[in-house]
Write a structure and sequence with these properties.
Layout (H helix, E strand, L loop, with lengths): L1 H21 L4 H82 L1
Helix pairs in contact: 1-2
Length: 109
């Protein structure tokens, strides 16, 4: 972005220099106009670059936040699935123990 701003500012200064020489302004006025054009384009380009970068960085931050939320939701769903599987396994083992205890009680009588 800096290279683009510098190139644009230099182009503006060069074009101003050429047109000032064509219109036969004095050397001092020509260089003064070229300097003003360079500074003006540099300042405006830098400000626009900062605004553009701020907008992109804000968008990147929002995308990163969305991505983290999706990862968090996926991990939470996986954790809940694992917890449900563990609970189902506990319930199954509990039922097996009950059946074994009932079977042992009926065999011992």
């Amino acid at each position: 972005m800096k290279k683009f701003v510098n190139t644009t500012a230099m182009t503006a200064a060069f074009v101003t220099l050429c047109f000032s020489l064509l219109r036969d302004f004095g050397v001092y006025a020509t260089f003064k106009r070229a300097a003003i054009a360079y500074i003006a384009f540099s300042v405006v380009g830098t400000i626009l670059g900062l605004i553009f970068r701020a907008g992109i960085q804000d968008e990147w931050a929002q995308d990163e936040k969305r991505r983290r939320m999706q990862i968090h939701q996926r991990l939470e769903e996986e954790r809940l699935d694992q917890e449900a599987t563990r609970q189902a396994e506990r319930d199954r083992r509990k039922e097996e123990r009950k059946k074994q205890l009932i079977g042992e009680d009926s065999n011992s009588v």
